[in-house]
């Protein structure tokens, strides 16, 4: 990330920190500060709104169910591009916020080779080299980057369709819809992973904290960095404690 981009992100943390505080209690670790949570929920809310209005426009059998939620069909069409733009704005700042920890590393290649074991919960603990984000989370992030660019370019060309040849606009419709379906698929997986598959993850986007057990279970390398302790030792201690009960 460039120095100017890093400065923008740091300024956002400082300015937003005046309004949003995060309380960390014993046995917890700070996972997401207030600024990060604000950006995350901004991205999520405007993606869902853009998705719903997009479905109403794209799918006739959903139109009569979704369009009245936004007032009318005409208003739905009016709101859709603005929801999309707000999604892009929030994600731009989230991109600056998470660019560093989302960098692809050798540990992520090793994680991808274990993805089946991860998806089926064969292993109780993640590998010791899994840092702040695992490779699956990084894939989702970079998928949003690619889809976000496609949304912006094709969306603008469709919005101002009088400025481009008709065939370009037609191609944009197809690309825009395919990008939306890819995003929807990743979004469903993301919601599942953040709730049922990893209890405690959703909680971290509400109050910003996770338990130490959650940290050494799912992100051992990050746990080691923030605590200076061995995640495997923490696991063994917890295992002995439960056996002694």
Structure in words:
- The chain has 245 residues and is mainly α.
- The protein has one domain: Fumarate Reductase Cytochrome B subunit, CATH 1.20.950.
- It is built from twelve helices and two strands.
- The chain has a two-stranded antiparallel ribbon with strand order 1-2.
- The radius of gyration is 21 Å and the shape is elongated.
Could you give a short description of this structure?
The protein is mostly helical.
Explain the layout of strands and helices.
Blueprint: H1 3-17, E1 28-30, H2 34-58, H3 60-66, H4 73-98, H5 106-113, H6 115-119, H7 135-159, H8 166-197, H9 201-207, E2 209-211, H10 212-218, H11 220-227, H12 231-244
Antiparallel strand pairs: 1-2
Helix pairs in contact: 2-3, 2-4, 4-7, 7-8, 10-11, 10-12
Main traits of this protein?
Fumarate Reductase Cytochrome B subunit, two-stranded antiparallel ribbon, mainly alpha, 73% helix, 245 residues, 2 strands
Q: Rg from C-alpha positions?
A: 21 Å
N- to C-terminal separation?
49 Å
CATH superfamily: Transmembrane di-heme cytochromes, Chain C
CATH class: Mainly Alpha
Q: How many structural domains?
A: 1
> Which spans of ≥5 residues are poorly predicted at pLDDT below 50?
none
Treating each run of at least 4 consecutive H or I residues as one helix, how many helices?
12
In the CATH classification, which architecture applies?
Answer: Up-down Bundle
DSSP strand tally: 2
Here the CATH topology equals Fumarate Reductase Cytochrome B subunit
Main sheet strand line-up = 1-2
Major β-sheet annotation = 2 strands, antiparallel
Assign an overall shape.
elongated
Helix-strand sequence: HEHHHHHHHHEHHH
Mean pLDDT: 90
User: Beta fraction of the residues?
Assistant: under 5%
Which structural class fits the helix and strand makeup? mainly alpha
Residues in helix, %: over 70%
């Amino acid at each position: 990330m460039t120095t100017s981009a890093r400065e923008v992100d740091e300024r956002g943390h400082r300015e937003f920190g005046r309004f949003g505080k995060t309380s960390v209690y014993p046995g917890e670790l700070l996972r997401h500060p207030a600024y990060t949570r604000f950006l995350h929920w901004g991205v999520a809310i405007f993606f869902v709104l853009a998705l719903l209005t997009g479905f109403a426009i794209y799918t006739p059998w959903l139109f009569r169910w979704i369009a009245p939620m936004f007032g009318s069909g005409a208003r739905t069409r009016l709101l859709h591009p603005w929801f999309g733009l707000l999604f892009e704005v929030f994600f731009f700042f989230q991109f600056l916020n998470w660019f560093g920890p989302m960098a692809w590393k050798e540990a992520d290649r090793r994680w991808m080779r274990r993805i089946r074991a991860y998806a089926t919960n064969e292993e109780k603990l993640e590998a010791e080299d899994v840092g702040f984000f695992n490779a699956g989370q990084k894939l989702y992030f970079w998928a949003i980057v690619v889809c976000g660019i496609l949304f912006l370019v094709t969306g603008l060309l469709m919005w101002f369709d009088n400025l481009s040849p008709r065939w370009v606009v037609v191609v944009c419709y197809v690309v825009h819809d395919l990008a939306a379906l890819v995003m929807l698929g990743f979004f469903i997986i993301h919601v599942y992973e953040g709730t049922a598959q990893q209890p405690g993850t959703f909680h971290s986007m509400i109050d910003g904290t996770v338990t130490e057990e959650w940290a050494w279970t799912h992100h051992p390398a990050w746990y080691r960095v923030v605590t200076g302790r061995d995640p495997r030792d923490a696991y063994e201690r917890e295992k002995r404690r439960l056996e002694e009960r």
